[in-house]
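dude i think i finally got it to work??
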Amino acid sequence: MKNKSFLLLFIILIFAHFTFAQAKPEFRGVWISTVSNIDWPAKDEWNSEKQKADFIRLLDLHKSNGLNAVIVQIRPASDAFYPSPYEPWSQWLTGTQGKAPFPFYDPLKFMIDEAHKRGLEFHAWLNPYRAVFNTKTSSVSSDHITKQHPEWFLTYGDKKYFNPGNKDAQYYVVKVVQDIVSRYAVDGIHMDDYFYPYRIPGKEFPDQNTYLKSGSKLSKDDWRRSNVDSIILAVHNVIKKTNPKCQFGISPFGVWRNADKDPNGSNTRAGQTNYDDLYADILLWLKKDWIDYVAPQIYWEFEQRDAPFQTVLDWWSNHTYGKNCYIGIGLYKAGTIAPWKDKTQLPRQIEAVRKTPNVQGVVFFSSKNLENNANGWSDSLRTNYFKVPAKTPTMK
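look at this
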């Protein structure tokens, strides 16, 4: 009898060891977008208590699905989801830019605390240069930075952007980051793909006068890239000086450069790229240790003709320069076209990521698609792919 009991205990221990051994560190994140109330808070829901309840429900959902990190947009357009000394309350929090939440609360502190209670990392997502989301319809308060320093901004299409070539504007953005990192227990500062804006056909970004006044001997393209390089380095420095444990991550557009422009580029035919159109030299930042992780937005399917998922995934695997790499997956496409109606699309992407060296996880865009259980994929994560909990990878 004792021998049988010992054998049973031994089998249980071996099974437990094997099960938990599979849960190696893996980033399992989700973007929670606040601009235009995409994910949270709900549109026209301005009651603080209801907002809190809805956010807790989201966290509980993502925790039950096996996720271990949330990337929450707290500065969508030079506005704030927290009491900021520099920027007004966001219109997507209260309905009117500059209007404080009622009953009053600090959404950022609340969100961080609730995420940490559940063992979830909290990465604060900032859009670096977008200042007015829509020049015709956006709520813009009288104390907004575009009203205080209109000379810092350029209008392109229906939006206003900080002029990346303006050093005062760069310094201002760095101060905003420093304020967040010094006052809040964020696990990371996260910036997405909007540096210089995506090109509008037939329209040039209106920074020619700034370029001429700079007196730079660089070509205009190189000058633009140097402007973005300088703010990335400055943000990195202020984060590490203020809180060395805080990570700095970038989520770039999926294609750095096409191979027809650069032999180091990917075998893709993307219409716009980070390097040539957004002026974001991601590889330089990785090489120079200016960022701690990269989360490229590979929002395409395996069958995509110009930028197939596997091709782009393999390229990033070979260009991480020792930094953590988490793959952005476009859940928002679920049900839109034939490949994204295929229920195997997401499982195949997760499996491909796990088989690929130098890649440590995934991030889903966006929260509402998991909330809606698109293609039953929330069920798949919970019962299969993320069933066993995992810690996030350590910062290298």
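Confidence is low (pLDDT under 50) at residues 9-22.
im so relieved honestly
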